[in-house]
Amino acid sequence: MTIIIQNVVRLIVPFILMFGAYVTVYGHVSPGGGFAGGTILAAALILERFVGINRKWSLNKSTCLKGVSFSLVGYGILKGIAFLEGAMHIELIHWPLGQPGALFSAGIIPLLNILIGLVVMMAFVLLFDLFNEDLAGEDH
Amino acid sequence: MSILLDNFIEVGSIILFAIGFTTLLVHNNLIKKIIGLNIMDTSIFLYFISIGYIDEAHAPIFKEGVVQYVNPVPSGLMLTGIVVAVSVTAFALALTIRLHSIYGTLELDEIMKMREENI
Amino acid sequence: MSLISVAPLVIILLLLISSFVLPFLKKPIKTSLPILGALTLYAWIHGLTYLGKDMYTIQAGHAEPPFGIALRVSAVEIVIGLLFMTVTTLIIWFSAQQFHREVGEKQQKTFLVLVHLLVASLLGIVYTQDLFNGFVFIEVSTLAACGIIVVKNKADNIKAAVKYLILSSLGSGLVLMGIAYLYALTGYLDMNYIHEALVPIASEKSRMILISMVLFMTGAGIKSALFPMHIWLPDAHTAAPGASSALLSGLVIKAPAVYFLKVCVMVYGYNMINQTAFLQLILLFSGTGMIVGSLFARTQKNMKRMIAYSSVAQMGYIFFGIGLGTPAGMAIAVYHMLGHGVTKATLFLVASTFIDKLKSYELSSLKGVGREMPFEMAVFTLCGFSMVGIPILPGFISKWNLALATIETGQVWLLAIILVSSVLNAAYYFPVTINGFFSDEEGLKPNDNHVAKAPLAVLTALLVLLGALSGPILKLIEAALT
Amino acid sequence: MRLTVSIFVAVCLAVVLLVGIVDFPEFGAANNPAHNEVMEKYIEEGVKETGAVNLVSGMILDYRAFDTFIESIVFFTAVISVFAVLKGGKIL
Description:
CATH architecture of chain B: Orthogonal Bundle
Number of domains of chain A: 1
Helix content of chain A: over 70%
Distance between the termini of chain A: 19 Å
Mean pLDDT of chain B: 85
Shape of chain A: elongated
Distance between the termini of chain B: 57 Å
Oligomer: heterotetramer
Number of domains of chain B: 1
Mean pLDDT of chain A: 84
């Protein structure tokens, strides 16, 4: 890739990441949510990979798989408790709902949105890496 | 006849569904099959979301003073549907990559004809 | 609600959560097998406590239906859930001892993760009361089933998986379209509420309802290998490793059939399905499947392929029971799923043992094998007897009751199909047994004698038990379906 | 030949699905059967019960959370299955 593209991408990727984070974190007060935000985050990271920028902190496959799994474990435990509470008609943990419209409101919904965002982002990046590696291996 | 024009989104999505279904069944190229699959899925999403539409209603984001909102249920369900379609597409593409690296072609009828020994 | 009553939800959640952790363990089988065993025990405790009691719902989350999602627990779900848990545990126990031959040591981890996901999703399909939730579970099960087919990673497996994936995506598209039609008509997704909303408008909107029925039938039929849509099944079952084919044939193709049965009974209800030509369509497809599947099986040379085509014929029996449109017919469909699930899983495990020991796929290589491996051949024979319909075994019970239910509906000529199919079953299972035990030819010698016998023995015991307890089981299921 | 077959199949399927069109609810009408008490509860009590202003977010993460949980598992299943295909069945 030419240096122009690389520099432009270097410049805009942080903004895309910030936008993705915004969409994820504000999923309960504005249009968006974990799935949309995670896709935007993944798009930014895949864009970097496309133009051949290797940052030190860029996610490798093992980190991605760990991220996906442990986000899902967290999600499963958080929501599993809620499911069981509903099924057994008891209340174990009370999550404060807060003022509707504020960032810290709506109980665990923002937390779940962040976890879903992480799952979606890392799963997409992982899929891209796997495909990319396999296709690159075929050419040589 | 007028119902065909009034419900034009449903009619359009059913036609798209038929196109996708046929692409999936009749084409031999795997990539074209996957495209057909996606057309079919998208047409169902379109159909589902058109069920939830209400004329002159607002998007389902709570705002003071708004009375009529669009039905949020189809939107939520189709979010799930889209994720499922993406995952199936990813897996189908992975299989396509493997098939291409084994057989060197994407035409399904040629692949089915080839015996494993001949490779 | 006690901790026992919510067992189905807990089992599904624990299976899913454990599958996220398995990829990071050194010896996943040492964790997976105890988890599966413990959960099976839990399922049995729940089943024995609630079998015969009234049906109840478990709501996942604080909102009750129609606002939230609920799992439905009645005799049908309990028995099918027990079948799934028990057979999976036994299959994993069996294959744990020969992973290095069948799947490969390195692929073991992937295989176990996918099995956990698969079983959880199958249980979800069976238990759920929400149409859309069932669809999502069906998608997970499709992806996981494709995963366990390709885990061996040979060219044949990839080919079979592509065929399966494309056809079953088509099927899920059709199911989703059916859900969309029903949602447009009623505005609910919970099965009971859809039924209540459909009854008043049944005659007014009959066309749309009939189309949705056909969409559900085609979609579930593709996934359950109903006859003209079965073309993916023989390839997939033959190419997959032994444990995977046992899972696929014993469990995976049953779950969409249960979903379809629940849609028929709970969403449309007996009145509505009996008023349309829809049942005749199912009877036509399943009747053809029963005969043609057996005919195809008769001509096969490959052991696994023969058993796979036999599955096509047996799925015909299940859909035939649904197609009768009476509680008795539906109950026999469920009972046949139990019998066939256990039998087919055992047959595939035994067949994979033969293939492994004799290093040959051919049916002809089984000649004289009964003298070298008497236990395996005896298990194979017993399962074959059950398929053919020798009394006391489950196969006989379901055929007998199917015939009775057919006479009850007044379509006596359909008996001919059951008879012809049984004779054809005998025509391809008996020669294997006779050759195995009584052939004078010296067969291939097995290369070593180490086989996991205990799981096979448990499966066979289950099979005999199912036949012996058929009366109460059928009564329980029928009571739940009326 | 292939073109003829494909057009024929497409037309047949579209006609079969469109036979039901006379039964379709009117597009965009507020009194369609799909807009029933379920939707009203989500809209009227959603903000109060879940605290989320985005009603869709509130619905999928609270009322129908079981669906959404399984939905994120679809991703995990796809990732593991892709490992099975492309990495010869080995994870990492």
